[in-house]
Amino acid sequence: MKRFKLKPWDLLHSLSDGTPDSRKNLERIVARHDGDFSTIFERKKKEIERRVRSFEDRREMLSSSMEPQDLLSLLNHYSGIQEELEKLCAASYLKFSENPADKVTKKSRYDIRLFNARMNDRLLFFDSWVSKGLDDDNFERLAKNSGDYERFLREERRFRPYTLDEGIEKILNSLHMLGQVERSEYYEEITSNLRFTIQEKVKIRKKGAKRKKEVTRTRVLDEIQLSDYLCHSRKQMREQAHKELFRKYREVKDTIGGSFIVQSTELKSESDQRKYPSLFSYINHENSLDDAVFEICLDVSKENTAIFTQDYFPKIRKKLSGIRGNMSCIDLDAPANGNGNGRISFEAGMNLVLESFNAFSPNFANIILDMESKRYIHSKPQRNKWSGAYCYSTPPSILPYILVNFTGYETDCIDLAHEFGHAVQNYLGCQKNNVLTYNPSEPVAEIASLFSEFLLFDRLFDKSKDNPALQKKYLLYFIDRAYYFTSRKSFLVNFEKEAHQLIGSPRFEIDDLSNLYLKRLREHFGEGVHVPEYFKDEWLLAPNLICAPGQDFSYTFGYLIGSALHEQYKKQGEKFVPSIISIFSAGDAPIEELLKKEAGIDIRPREFWQHGYDLIKVRMEELRKLAE
């Protein structure tokens, strides 16, 4: 078993040019300024601005009659600037994630957001020229002779019908780049500072006393610590924790809700200006997804809601958790009797995930080992650290960064596998693509992360094949995750679609969103699961709804396609591994054609999406038999 420790990450990778001298110089600057990166950030900004100015001076080269080698020179220049901008933005965001409440880090992050928007505004003339400034014949002549940049040029050209004048594009670009990032970081800042008060009865023995005495203990917790009580073995503690969670979020409801309203208004305005049929058509086009595929996936997901809400939760899950009376929303994460969320060390968790990756492809495991040894993973708990988990995609010159909050539960291993899947895809994409094409769309990115979860479950199911109690526990984890990524996420997307329509209605108020959410949630669970009134504000806890419009669809899409790829892998074994690696290495290539080519998968028929739910039903039946 390999040795691993909880560690912070090393952000200097993202700011160094890769030479030892550059590294030593950065270390001296950081040490001199007590860990503050502001001085380094300012130096990087000046270097990038010089390169942007030089690129602007070459604008006169752009013409329909230009030679392919001249365009190639411009593309090399342009991609170099984008790489440095991405690395600078990565460093500032990662530093911010360590402590969103830190004023110095907040200011640096804000300054770099502004700088990034300003630099991209100055580069926008090139994007506009590629998209609209060339006739079709000359575009084809230049694109076919642009080498590795051809896909980037064709991707830019795909937006031609929706591209506006350069001046308007600059305004929309700034609104998009600043607004969406600011909302995301503002949400993180607000929610990471929330503190929750819990009272619980505990038995203690005072010094000299013969018996323990029951006392009431008051604890003030952050959201990560509160999560233990949300899935507490005692129902009254779960109820208290949920009520306290929503009470504190209600205190910031106007702030979070206001941010969502501004986002909705801006997005609808932009999609209208660009002449998209709808806001979600705009989002789908950004993701290279056809509206028909989007709607079919959502429709099939809604049709299959009952397998969770009328069967799994009120029958199987209720029985395993020993719930008396009606199943409630506060019971969805209740521990199963004798099979609660097991404990595991970070070292054992890392080894478990790496074993599952290694069984599929040793290269997958080696990528993560390389990241861990070079400190690209922030696993160390610390106060005010961002409360979630993410993989930050980085350009080809550095490895991806991962932030996790490992609390010592077995389910943390699933989160590790998820984020490591993103990292592997980022790494593979960088090996086969350039800085302008390495990054897949959000729906495609989730295929890799969720496929990686399936690999971990393979390992868990293999370990438990002779142990019914363990089998039961791991199947419980599996189906809980299946619900969360399919039915739950598609529910949120449908709510989001309605919410955007509601925001534009006369006499709209923020409470209207809560009332709509409660109504739809009760329809979602029907008679199977009771939905308390205080769940009306649960939408405030959906960060993608507030910060990343339409992104929740990515999880349903990614889960069901990841499931299909995993099924083929289990049938074909090692022969299918190269196809998976090709899909994960494809960067921003259109996913529909890629799946047909590499896996023979057609995502247009309803039957494809239904089969994903049929596979979940198979696992559900296995759990039902074990629960009898």
- What's the N-to-C terminus distance? 37 Å
Q: Tell me roughly what share of residues is in helical segments.
A: 55-70%
Helix/strand structural class: mainly alpha
CATH architecture of the domain at 36-191, by name, is: Up-down Bundle
Task: Give the CATH H-level superfamily of the domain at 36-191.
Answer: Oligopeptidase f, N-terminal domain
Low-confidence stretches: none
CATH topology of the domain at 36-191: Butyryl-CoA Dehydrogenase, subunit A, domain 3
Radius of gyration: 25 Å
Shape: globular
Strand content: under 5%
CATH class of the domain at 36-191: Mainly Alpha
Q: Features of this protein?
A:
Butyryl-CoA Dehydrogenase, subunit A, domain 3; 5 strands; globular; two-stranded antiparallel ribbon; 628 residues; 24 helices; three-stranded mixed β-sheet; mainly alpha; 65% helix
